[in-house]
Amino acid sequence: MTDTTQSIMPAGPVIKGKLSRDDIIMRGSMIIIALYLVVSLVFPLYAMLSKSFSTYRVELSQYEFQVSDEAGTFDGSIMTGAELNARSGTFADAELSTGADGRLPVTGFFPDFSFRSPVMYQIRNTTGTGRFLIGSNLQTGTEWVTLDSNTFRRVQLRPVQARGLDNFVSYFSTPALFNSIKNSLWIAVLSTVVTVSLAFWFAYALNRSCMKYKGVFRLIAMAPILVPSLLPGIALVYLFGNQGMIKELLFGASIYGPIGIVIGSVFFTFPHAFIIISTALAISDARLYEAAASLRSTPWRTFWTVTVPGARYGLISAAFVVFNLVITDFGLPKVIGGQFNVLAVDIYKQVIGQQNFEMGAVVSVVLVIPAILAFAIDRMVQSKQVALLSARSVPYEPQPNKKMDRIFFAYCTLIGIFIAGLLAVCQFAALIKFWPYDLSLSLNNYQFDKMDGGGWGSYVNSIKLALMTAVAGTAVVFFGAYLVEKSKGFRTGRAIFQMFAMLPMAIPGMVLGLAYIFFFNNPANPLNAIYGTMAILVVCTVTHFYTVSHLTAVTALKQMDREFESVAASLKQPTMKLFARVTVPVCLPAVLDISIYLFVNAMTTVSAVVFLYSPKTTLASIAVLNMDDAGDIAPAAAMGMMIFYTNALARIIHLLASRGILRRTQAWRSR
Amino acid sequence: MKQKASFLTALAFTMTAATAGLAETELTVYTAVEAEDLARYAETFNQSHPDIKINWVRDSTGIITAKLLAERDNPQADVVWGLAATSLLLLKSEGMLEPYAPAGVEDLDPKFVDGDNPPSWVGMDAWVASVCYNTVEAEKLGLTPPASWKDLTDPQYAGHVIMPNPNSSGTGFLDVSSWLQMFGEEEGWKFMDALHENIARYTHSGSKPCKLAAAGEIPIGISFAFRGAKSKAAGAPLEIIVPSEGVGWDMEATAIVAGTANLEAAQTLVDFTVTKEANEMYNTGYAVVAFPGVAKPVEHFPEGLLDAMIDNDFEFAANNRAAILKEWQARYDGKSEAK
After folding, report:
1. What angle in degrees, to the nearest 10, is found between the helix axes of A455-486 and A534-544?
2. Is A349 on the interface with B (CB under 8 A)?
3. What distance lies between CA B315 and its chain's CA centroid?
4. pLDDT beyond 50 at A542
5. A549 within 8 A of A602, measured Cβ to Cβ
6. Closest by alpha carbon to A513, among A600, A657, A619?
7. Is the pLDDT of residue B5 over 60?
8. Which of A480, A491, B23, B42 matches a 20 to 30 Å C-alpha distance to A10?
9. Chosen from B140, B328, B333 to mutate, greatest number of chain A CBs within 10 A
10. How does strand B25-31 pair with strand B79-84?
């Protein structure tokens, strides 16, 4: 077959378009932004993965021992640690695998050891890499060290670095650790079911009923986005803790544990689910409902055969987004989780509590798996979505129905009270002098400088970080999206870029933060200098929230005809000029949306930056965590509410600014 | 008298500084001391040594320890001033500390000095375990105050005790290590098994149990005495109980990081940290300091605390830390969801 085709049609020369200077600039810039993503995402993740395989093991063959007789003379027979262990069977192979801090006592090798005996011992390393301790003094030399029995029992062998799967083996053989997988999944599934159901009816009421005050409800539903995820946890302590205002409602159950995590998760994931489902419910074809009515379908049947299927992609997408948010969240279970271990908190405990970075990396790898799965399924489902609205569709208009509208109003009021109530409780708690013993009002809890967490300086740092993230992040993300969307050819490069841009969404913040430690806190890394500075926090935050910003930018850019680029080319105008003069002004609404998204998230993020802040760059969101950790719960609530007000103010400024700017730049839209 | 002493020490230091021929030197000092105290420490030091500038790097004990260990092969710090002795032992066992006997070390309580000669670290002050007992909440629940650790295993306290998780809190670990030292390995674990039945939950930080007790969230919080005294001073209905068997403690200590380029300046600083003057300075925050006779009573501090401090074997704690934590986690962390 091939032979004949070849004989008929000889392979012609490959025709390639000549690259213009413009193309080169665009490809060059794309490569630079792609490199940014490689350095800020791919390399750190690789460093983390390789850390999870870095193990510590006591190499018994690296040590030699001699034992004297009662008179203290050595007969010259030398035994290695491995031989001694084989003879005495003291340690099983698994016991030799340990952490960086592992120690192994040696007296067990000698069954007749007694610290009172006059027998002397000699020990040495056979290689330069061998390490052992006498008491707490490190011995690395290869000379023989002679010790009496009483000192010899203070000898501890130290492990050397190796590579292997030992960390994973030890993870899965520690029930305390791998139980967290089950806990995390269970919490995430339960929270997802509850949040999506609640958000569905809320979105349904706002889109498909004629109840009043829809604007107010919409505003309240969005409020949780403005606060760190751990704030609802603090509110729940005040409501349902042992001194809680309405703890009777729990009928003796403890809020510290799964109950608290689920209630708090519903609070902070609600707006995410609500936006997605609301978008899905906003558009629908009235003809389907007319058809259903003319076929005499009951409203209940219409709901299940028309409404739900129409919103199914939104529901699935919302479910996976919520699942991902809950399973990767760290702040909330830390505050209210009590003894209920989840993966994200395990990473923190391993790294901050025990300095066991290797095990932290292992838990991270475990946590990434469900997060990536959820993300991949969500992307798959979304790509299947087809246009519901065709040119012939008639938009659905809800009809007033007094009874239903009243029910929906009552329902939305309940949800509104839940959301606004938790925030109000935090504000109330922040103003109380000493709950529950002194209920007078005071501003004592705002004296952050007297508490852990970095004081008011943290608040200033947070605003700095948010502004820098918003400016730098918007620039990088939007320019990157433009390059990938509008450059010609270079298919492979663009596909790879797209993949990099989607990856951050699937990587939990904790994992990203930990990966940054491994990558940037390495003296051999030339980028080591940014470790511990504001720059690394900005880079980390931009990367962490890259995907959503990128998608927003791409959506806006897709609405612009590619003809613009062709016209610019035929007018011999450089693309960069087009970008600055036409693209950015036209897409300004999207640009502003990206910047406020980055600002708000930089103010509230905890998980990604908790490993990366330094004493000079403490943040408000971390201060909330640390003050709660130290038991200063009321100041933590006060700082959390400061974040809320700042974000609310930023949103208002954003709204006003965008109105003003849009009036000037978007006048062409309404001719 | 006091003035004279400080003048003499100042003179002594000017002389050492002069003989060493020091110009303006900058020292990078890692510390876990509370931020509000650092400025005061540096100021007092600079009164006698204006030629050495201290650049502080401060964070919590766990994070500073992790930072130092991560920089094992490329240390950034010259001196560690104010880090838990157990952490310094960890650094010592990595060969990261420069042994040095500061001038006047012999005046200190030997409990506070590393056993080796020359010592790798010298202590500054101690923080001591205690039980914070909320009298108002306890009365509501009809509890009688415990007098000893063993009392805390009484079924009447079921669900009314909170302690820090030793896996994340240094205070938690010093409790566990002191119980194992006092009661012996077997009895110690038996005691913790019984205590675990009464524990409502384990917190991440060491000060939280006392603050929770102060807020009435729980009647009994196992924490440290200093925290309790502070909360009591703030008006919380607390009683600070020193269990009769003895209490675990850890100290803040000072050491020179091996490989420092500013060894002379580092030694000058460490010489200062053991002086009476420095110990008086520590006393504002800590009731127990290394220099005998310096400590003035701190308000609301429990009596008899000094005598209750056990003879803490730091080497035991450091060398068995990994094994103890693993055992603790297997026994108590895995069971948690059974509640």
Report:
1. 50
2. yes
3. 15
4. yes
5. no
6. A619
7. no
8. A491
9. B333
10. parallel
Give me the residue label for tokens 């016991």: A95
Compare CB distances from B325 to A341, A354, A614 and report the shortest one's residue: A354
Model pLDDT for residues B291-322, shown as the tens digit of each residue: 988 888 777 888 888 889 998 888 888 888 88
Confidence category of residue B23, pLDDT binned at 50, 70, 90: low
DSSP state letter for B115: S
Q: Please choose, from the candidates A509, A538, A532, the residue with its C-alpha nearest in 3D space to the C-alpha of residue A520.
A: A532
Q: Between A and B, how many CB-CB pairs are < 8 A?
A: 147
Query: At B14, which amino acid appears?
Result: T
**Residues 277-336, chain A: which have Cβ within 8 Å of B?**
334
- CA–CA gap between residue A617 and residue A610 (Å, rounded): 11
Sheet containing strand A155-157, edge to edge, reads A104-105, A155-157, A132-134, A137-139
- Which helix (H) or strand (E) element contains residue A438? strand A438-441
Tokens of A405: 């509208």
pTM, two decimals, is 0.86
Is residue B329 within 8 angstroms of chain A, CB to CB?
A: yes
Q: Which of B167, B319, B336 sits opposite A156 (nearest CB)?
A: B319
* Spatial distance between the Cα atoms of B311 and B29, rounded to a whole number of angstroms: 29
SS3 of chain B: helix, strand, coil, percent, to 5: 45, 20, 35
Instruction: Report the range of poorest mean pLDDT among A52-56, A444-448, B33-37.
Output: B33-37
Task: State the nearest Cα–Cα gap between A354 and chain B, in angstroms.
Answer: 6
Quick: pLDDT tens for B231-252: 888 888 999 999 999 999 999 9
Contacts of A355 in chain B (CB under 8 A): 62, 65-66, 69
Q: Give how far B34 is from chain A: nearest CA, Å.
A: 8
Residues of A in Cβ contact (< 8 Å) with B74: 523
Q: Which helix (H) or strand (E) holds A177?
A: helix A175-208
Q: What is the DSSP string of B160-204?
A: -EEEE-TTT-HHHHHHHHHHHHHH-HHHHHHHHHHHHHHEEEEES
Cβ B165–A353 below 8 Å, yes or no? yes
Who's near B120: CB < 8 A, 6+ residues apart?
Answer: A136, B88, B92, B97, B98, B99, B114, B255
Burial class (CB in 10 A: 0-12, 13-18, 19+), B149: buried
Which A positions 10-29 lie with beta carbon below 8 A of chain B? none
What are the tokens at B188? 């110690």
Q: 3-state class of A327 per DSSP?
A: helix
